[in-house]
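Researcher: Let's do a round of design. I'm pasting the C-alpha cells now; please hold your answer until I've finished.
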C-alpha cells in the first residue's frame, strides 16, 4: 500500500530554504577563497602559477563547489516529507529508474570523469596551442564537462571533455614552445640551385629566431622533376603564432628574391 502523502509544514519549508541559502553562500565563499588561494600562491612565489597547476586548480575548485551544491540541495530536500514519499515510490522500480538515469546521464558523467582525467594527466593546459582533428587554437578554459578553445578567427570552439580524452591531441607548447615555419616553392629545373640556395637562406635569415645548431634556417629538395625542382625552406620561431606570421613574411621575401634572381639570370619564372 503506498505511503500517504504528507504535506510539508511551514517550519520544514523554512528549514529547506535556509539550507539552500546557506549552500549558495558557502559555495560562493569557497569558490572565491580557492580562486584567491591560486593568486596568493602566485604572489608568494613571485611569479605566475604554472599553467599545469592553474589547470588542476580550476578543475579542483569546480569539483569542490559542485560537491557543496549537491550536498546542500540534498540536505534541503530531506527536510520535506514529500521527498521521502517520492523516494519510496522510486524504490519500487529501482532497477528501471537506475537504467533510465544511467542512460540519460552517461554522456554527462563521461564528460565529468574525462574532465578530471584531462586535469590530472595534462595532455593540454590553459594557454597551450593545440590541434585536434582539423581544429587548431589556444586552450582558453578547461571546465568539468567542456573545454573552450580559441580559434584563429577569435571564435570559441566548445569540445566535450570525453572527446579530449579519446582523441589524438597535437600540442605545440607542452614541452617546447619553439615551432618551425616551412615554405614550399618550386624553381625551374634549369635554375642554378646554388644561387637559389643563397638567396633563399639570405631571405630566411631575417625570419629566424632559432638559436640551437639544429634550428638554423635550412633548405631541402623535396622533389626532383624534369621541369621543376621543389624545395622547402624552414626557419624557427619562438612560438607557433610567431611561426605562422613568419611563414607569411618569408613567402613574400622569397618571391622578391627569386624574382630578382630570375631577372638577373634570364631564367624562366618559378613553377608552382
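Researcher: That's everything. Go ahead.
Model: Designed sequence:
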Amino acid at each position: 500500500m503506498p505511503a500517504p502523502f504528507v504535506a510539508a509544514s511551514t517550519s520544514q519549508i523554512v528549514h529547506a530554504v535556509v539550507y539552500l541559502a546557506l549552500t549558495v553562500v558557502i559555495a560562493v565563499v569557497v569558490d572565491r577563497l580557492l580562486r584567491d588561494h591560486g593568486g596568493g600562491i602566485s604572489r608568494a612565489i613571485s611569479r605566475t602559477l604554472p599553467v599545469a597547476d592553474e589547470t588542476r586548480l580550476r578543475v579542483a575548485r569546480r569539483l569542490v563547489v559542485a560537491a557543496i551544491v549537491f550536498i546542500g540541495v540534498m540536505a534541503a530536500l530531506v527536510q520535506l516529507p514529500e521527498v521521502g514519499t517520492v523516494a519510496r515510490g522510486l524504490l519500487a522500480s529501482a532497477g528501471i529508474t537506475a537504467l533510465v538515469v544511467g542512460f540519460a546521464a552517461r554522456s554527462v558523467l563521461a564528460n565529468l570523469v574525462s574532465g578530471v582525467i584531462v586535469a590530472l594527466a595534462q595532455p593540454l593546459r590553459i594557454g597551450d596551442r593545440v590541434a585536434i582533428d582539423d581544429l587548431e587554437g589556444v586552450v582558453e578554459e578547461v571546465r568539468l564537462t567542456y573545454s573552450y578553445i580559441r580559434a584563429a578567427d577569435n571564435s570559441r570552439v566548445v569540445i566535450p571533455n570525453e572527446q579530449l580524452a579519446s582523441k589524438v591531441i597535437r600540442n605545440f607548447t607542452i614541452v617546447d614552445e619553439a615551432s618551425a615555419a616551412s615554405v614550399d616553392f618550386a624553381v625551374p629545373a634549369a635554375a642554378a640551385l646554388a644561387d637559389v640556395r643563397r638567396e633563399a637562406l639570405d631571405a630566411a635569415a631575417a625570419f629566424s629566431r632559432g638559436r640551437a645548431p639544429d634550428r638554423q634556417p635550412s633548405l631541402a629538395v623535396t622533389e626532383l622533376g624534369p621541369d621543376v625542382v621543389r624545395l622547402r625552406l624552414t626557419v624557427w620561431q619562438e612560438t607557433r603564432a610567431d611561426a605562422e606570421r613568419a611563414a607569411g613574411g618569408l613567402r613574400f621575401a622569397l618571391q622578391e628574391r627569386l624574382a630578382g634572381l630570375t631577372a638577373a639570370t634570364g631564367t624562366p619564372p618559378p613553377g608552382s
